[in-house]
């Protein structure tokens, strides 16, 4: 059995490396010219060839403790490689992407992360079975063939070694002994003891030719490996075992240029500085002068002596004596400037653009000033994987046309009637009609919404942002930005949970307001205490979300753990995905919370994260699914997108039910409800090469709905290339300008609103200011590899690589809104040259500027968050 096992183990290594290399090259081959690919291909295969040769030498069927030990280790290595290769192939089949091994341990070490991995188990098992079958069939052929190749290549090498030793004084007899013993031992075949070494006469005839061929190959490999460009060929040559070693590397000290200067100094010259004015603290980046020191050193008069969480940047620090040494920090922690540390100073922020000096937009100004709008409560609804272009679906849109096209040959009116029922609640929330009409031009009947009786008058309902982007395609980083009004960090995983946000988060702001007033019942809601609560029907244990929820100040939390307790008490709950239950299971807990709010005379801050629209887009069995897309026969590739659309339809109904619940408790007319997508979701319909959010920079992962719902605020379609970072300052602006805060709270809020980097969305959006662009950043899942950027003044979008495994990607969203024709290059120089030729000088300048800003922005986020990579080691 051992004689068969050893060749099979070697064959498994060979097949695993071959399959993964083919996948690896297939992903990246199209990014370089065919000529360059052919020229450098041998050098790209060299690391895999070396691993195969070493594996074959280890898996020799010889007697002796060392040889047996090498065989055992070789077989263990083959099984590890089998699992890794199957995972790589299965992941590629599901997403069109590769596994990032540096993140694999974080998933495997997380109970809920394992559920994500296991969701793709079928494709992994299928890939593993394929490798095993091919390896078993080819085991003897591959074992002998590679052994013969090693012998052929090895003979000239050994003779060269003999010659070298001869020059160092070894006798001919000694050399003859070496040849007969060591070589015979090292170079032999596995099957039936057949020898790999050719006989002496044949060797004599072939030696010169072999020498010449080997010399030419060696020179060629040396030259092509040495002189090829680093990008992308170093990454393309990576062999699977080397890639897997990334799992065990210590966290990189990704803190380069933390103290580096702003890359566009012409924009922050003294003639561009702005003096302080009223609540505005001034703007003097590059000058740590009076305005900056005043902001840093002045403790706000409204801040309680017992400083609440979220406001610790104003904690006084005890003076150190001359003999005291500063506390040691971990060797791999990011060093930060001594002057400001992790302190965010808006006076020194070169990116800061405020629109608080402009008037509220005309449409709503008089309504807000007239006292018709009261905001006693605030609700924030984060919608998992929600896409702006589907909130709501509109007839005539690109995605509507795609859905209709899949039903080719069917009655168009029947299809449109079906599609018109997908997002009726979203139509009411946003004020965007679906424009549903029959072939003859007549309107379809109004779609009834049994879950919700919307009582808002025509022309009222709130502000809908057209052109909104998320700050990250990683849910929790997006959640942090939404709740805290602070950009997240371009690092893998939810490291933000391990430190404090550099801005006060919404629950912390409301907790501050609580501390500014007496905790006693009052009929005047301005004097009432806020009661922050968070609701989610799935687990909060994945990637430390629970830690973050507690840290930012939620007092009442209901997630899967609480729902599991209900199940233990006899309540029937249906799991719809690997994370938990449908949102409808929360309704009883939500009603209990609303009753408590009313009975105790509190102000509600209600935060809710939906989840049904998360992969795998399961819905309750009682929910009747619809074929929004044809998924039969050759159209089966639409099945995942169709599942997603059904999950959206379920969530649309749930949003209506939730709003009706607010109405049933008498909260509708005094509640501001904010709806926002955490990120989008890419499908094969968007681009066939990659799906999902993981290391996928496609724009469909970033366009999200942002809507501020209040029945007494006039309808506004707010056109701006803005992000969800603006939600928190907009909430504060609305509270201030509707008279919804008492004097002390308003005093604090009018100061705080100037701290946040986002602009208010009830005022005209400043796309530029004194030559500076309003830049938007989007961290791409998993965090440390890619960053997307847009600016409010331009139609262009760029994806910037943060490592060597991805390309620059440039698109013009005006002319290519679906990013069907991206321009991709491996270096900035190549990109700017190509952009200049295709889009013009201004676009090329914009791309170079975006890249420069990104190099400053990333390390600056780590400084502000106090990022410490050593947390990953603990």
From TrEMBL:
| Transmembrane intervals | 36-59, 71-96, 116-138, 211-231
Q: InterPro entries this protein is in?
A: Alkaline_phosphatase_core_sf, GAG_Ulvan_Degrading_Sulfatases, Sulfatase_N
In this chain the Sulfatase N-terminal domain maps to: 536-735
| Keyword tags | Membrane, Transmembrane, Transmembrane helix
One family from Pfam that matches here is Sulfatase
Instruction: Specify the domain of life of the species encoding this protein.
Output: Eukaryota
Q: Which SUPFAM superfamilies match?
A: Alkaline phosphatase-like (SSF53649)
Recorded protein name is Sulfatase N-terminal domain-containing protein
